[in-house]
Amino acid sequence: MAIIDVWAQHPTLRMLEHDMFDSLRRWGAPLPSEQPPVAATLAAMDAGGVDLALISAWYGPEGTLISNDDVAGFVAESDGRLVGVASVDLRNPMAAVRELRRAVTVSGMKALRIVPWLWGLPPNDRRYYPLYAECVELGIPFCTQVGHTGPLRTSETGRPIPYLDDVALEFPELTIVAGHIGYPWTAEMIALATKYPNVYIDTSAYTVRRYPPELVAYLKAHGRGKVMFGTNFPMIAPQHALAALDDLGLDDETRELFLAGTARRVFGLD
Question: To the nearest whole number, what is the mean pLDDT of the chain?
Fold first, then answer.
């Protein structure tokens, strides 16, 4: 059975060395201290049985940690195993729209990802709105983070309600993929995914053993086809993220949708 990881990064050294990730080093595996080759990411995917990973650029107010061109280069080295996800600088909306358009139409990126805690701006801030309109025009999903923030930054921007609720209500044509489950507001995130046809959840930043019970219940019932697998690699390796998958008790159809089928449809990976 194929596995697609919908939230990963092939990191640059400047990302790995940033002090905002110090809190993650306390409980996760040690992050590399030098620029890892693409082969290292592919090897980690192989160890976890992951066939395809969506890797994202990272832009923040302190600078570019992984550029769209970096991502395009990593994808080109991957023999089709990596798929690019764009990011942009929110401070200049028109430049951001043009960069998103370039990343998709020239470099083949399959989505836009913006991490709200990096900017201190919730997703209903006006600076996002031109990008939502462009995502709709380009036919790509908008990916974002929900739930508390692991790095030492505010968690307020990760509240699903009211912030993401506003976006889904005002942009009904926009496909939204909310990464990191939404804990401790998991019930709110499930409510939004239930309420809006185009809102999805991914499990990145959590191992299977740490999925909240309400998410597992949702995945096995009316949330079939609404939850996708993600790792947040390199913070969590695929093999570690997927350990105990069998313990979830998913039937074959639900398991296939969770691991790959929904991602193929949402991100247009066919």
Answer: 94
For helices 129-138 and 93-105, the axis angle rounded to 10 degrees is 20
Give the contacts of 262 (CB within 8 A, at least 6 positions apart): 200, 225, 226, 227, 228
Taking the whole predicted model, whether its pTM rises above 0.90 is answered as: yes
Across 142-168, b (16+ Cβ under 10 Å) vs e yields bbbbbbbbbeebeeebbbbeebbbebb
pLDDT tens, 126-182? Answer: 999 999 999 999 999 999 999 999 888 899 999 999 999 999 999 999 999 999 999
Tokens of 156: 């307020």
Residue 220 CB contacts under 8 Å (≥ 6 apart), including other chains: 248, 249, 250, 251, 254
Contact 101, 135 (CB under 8 A): no
